[in-house]
């Protein structure tokens, strides 16, 4: 009996995987990929756009407070967030007709606090995405056999983990020294996956850890 239930489950899964093949542009929204997956991708698009807007506001505040190197980190993080949002948007467009989807909540305007507080807030947001949101959504995409979505979500999760690592290190430096003079004054953003770095190797010698493009192609954030 158990065996029969399992076979039915496998058959149902196979059917689903075939229907979710990222060629669903001509299908109505309710006949595309798993609606839960569409919801998940819509959620991470807004989450990355919101994070990008927050980090942009934090960058402006850091500049006002004369933390120019922290401002550059926030700008790099904001750029990375928007790259991730665009990647997620491309995945969504390949899943379904996005014009038929209900609009998502608008991005909220954040009220920046002090730079150390803003760093903490940004780190906490990374923590939430890295430990709760992305692992859950990656698991669902893996279950659905949707490799394009799995890759994009994994890049985003690793990128957020990396952002958090730099945020924590910079917060520690600023808290200890009371200034950001020893924080890197140049940050690099991978234009494909959004991974950030405070240094790159000599031109042409290394590639992005996540997506593999040459580090010399990274976007430079230094003002
Ligand atoms: Zn990359």
Salient structural properties:
223 residues, mainly alpha, Ferritin, 3 strands, 4% strand, disordered N terminus
Descriptive account of the structure:
- Residues 1-19 and 23-31 have low confidence and may be disordered.
- Helix 3 runs antiparallel to helix 5.
- Strands 2-1-3 form a three-stranded antiparallel β-sheet.
- By secondary structure, the protein is mainly alpha-helical.
- Strand 1 and strand 2 (196-197) form a beta hairpin.
- It has a domain at 27-180: Ferritin, core subunit, four-helix bundle (Ferritin), CATH 1.20.1260.10.
- The protein is built from five helices and three strands; from the N terminus they run H-H-H-H-H-E-E-E.
- It is globular, with a radius of gyration of 20 Å.
- Zinc ion is lined by residues 190, 192-193, 195, 208, 210-211, 213.
In short:
With 223 residues, the protein is mainly alpha-helical. It has helices at residues 2-19, 35-64, 68-95, 115-143, 147-177, and strands spanning 187-189, 196-197, 219-221.
Give the helix/strand layout:
Elements lengths: L1 H18 L15 H30 L3 H28 L19 H29 L3 H31 L9 E3 L6 E2 L21 E3 L2
Antiparallel strand pairs: 1-2, 1-3
The structure holds zinc ion (ZN).
Zinc ion (ZN) binds next to loops.
Q: What is the string of helix and strand elements? A: HHHHHEEE
Span between termini: 66 Å
What is the β-strand count? 3
CATH superfamily of the domain at 27-180: Ferritin, core subunit, four-helix bundle
Largest sheet: 3 strands, antiparallel
CATH class of the domain at 27-180: Mainly Alpha
How many helices does DSSP assign?
A: 5
Low-confidence stretches: 1-19, 23-31
């Amino acid at each position: 009996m158990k065996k029969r239930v399992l076979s039915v489950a496998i058959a149902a899964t196979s059917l689903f995987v075939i229907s979710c093949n990222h060629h669903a542009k001509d299908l109505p929204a309710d006949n595309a990929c798993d609606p839960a997956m569409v919801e998940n991708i819509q959620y991470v698009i807004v989450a990355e756009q919101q994070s990008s807007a927050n980090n942009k506001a934090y960058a402006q505040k850091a500049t006002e407070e004369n933390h120019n190197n922290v401002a550059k980190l926030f700008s790099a993080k904001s750029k990375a967030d928007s790259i991730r949002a665009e990647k997620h948007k491309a995945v969504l467009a390949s899943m379904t007709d996005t014009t038929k989807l209900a609009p998502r909540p608008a991005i909220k305007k954040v009220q920046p606090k002090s730079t150390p507080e803003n760093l903490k807030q940004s780190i906490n947001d990374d923590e939430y995405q890295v430990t709760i949101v992305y692992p859950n959504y990656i698991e669902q995409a893996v279950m659905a056999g949707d490799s394009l979505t799995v890759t994009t979500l994994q890049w985003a999760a690793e990128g957020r983990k990396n952002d958090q690592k730099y945020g924590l290190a910079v917060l520690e430096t600023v808290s200890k020294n009371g200034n950001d003079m020893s924080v890197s004054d140049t940050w690099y953003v991978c234009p494909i996956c959004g991974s950030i770095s405070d240094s790159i190797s000599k031109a042409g010698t290394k590639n992005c850890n996540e997506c593999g493009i040459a580090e010399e192609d990274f976007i430079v954030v230094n003002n």
